[in-house]
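Quick question: who can interpret this fold?

. . .
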Amino acid sequence: FTRLRPTHHPDFMNEVKIKICGLFREQDIEYANALKPDYIGFVFAKSHRQVTPGQAKKLRQKLAPGMIPVGVFVDEPVEHVAKLLSDGVIEMAQLHGHEDEKYITELRKLSGKRIIQAFRITENRDEERAVLSTADDILLDGGSGSGVQFDWTLIQEVKRPFFLAGGLNPENVSEAIRVVKPFAVDASSGVETGKVKDFEKMRRFIEAVRGV
C-alpha cells in the first residue's frame, strides 16, 4: 500500500467500504470468505476476541484473496506491530491507545504500511483532533470497542474520509451512512450473538451497507 496524504483517499467518493472486526475462529474466516467484506480485523489487544500472532497467522492463511486484514492494537510496542506488518500477518495497523505522532512516524518508517488511528468522539474537540492526525486513515468511535453508538451529529462536518465504528448493526448502519457519509463502516459486537460472530447478522449488515 502506498501512503497517501491524509486528506485524500482513493475511494472517498465510491461505495462505502465494510470492515468486520474481531475475527478469532476459523468459522469467522469462513463467514468472511463467503460474504467478502473489504476489511477484516484481528484484535491483538486484551479482549475476549484477542488472538495471538500465531493464531492470526493461521487465520490469515485461510482468508480468501481480496480482503484486507487489519490488526487492532492498544499501546503495543511499535516493533511488535511492525513485525506483524512486515511478516504479512496483517496489512494495516489500527491504533486504539495513546499512540502519538512519533509512534505513527516510527511505525510507518519500520513497515511502510497503512495506519489507522482511532479516536473516541464525545465532543467537537475530539473531531478536530482526529482530522489533524497524520495517520493514513482515522476511525471515529464512541469508545474502545464499547459497541455503543455515539452522537453522530458531532462528526457531520468532518471533511476527511473516516471509518465509522461504535454500535453499528444491521438495523442502524443504513441511517449512519446517510447521516455522516463515512468512507467505511466497522462492526464487531453488532454482528455477534453470544459474543461470537453470527453469519446471518453479518450477512444482513453487509447487505444493508451495499444496498444504500
About this structure: The chain has a mean pLDDT of 91. Helices lie at 26-35, 53-62, 78-86, 101-111, 124-131, 173-180, 199-210.
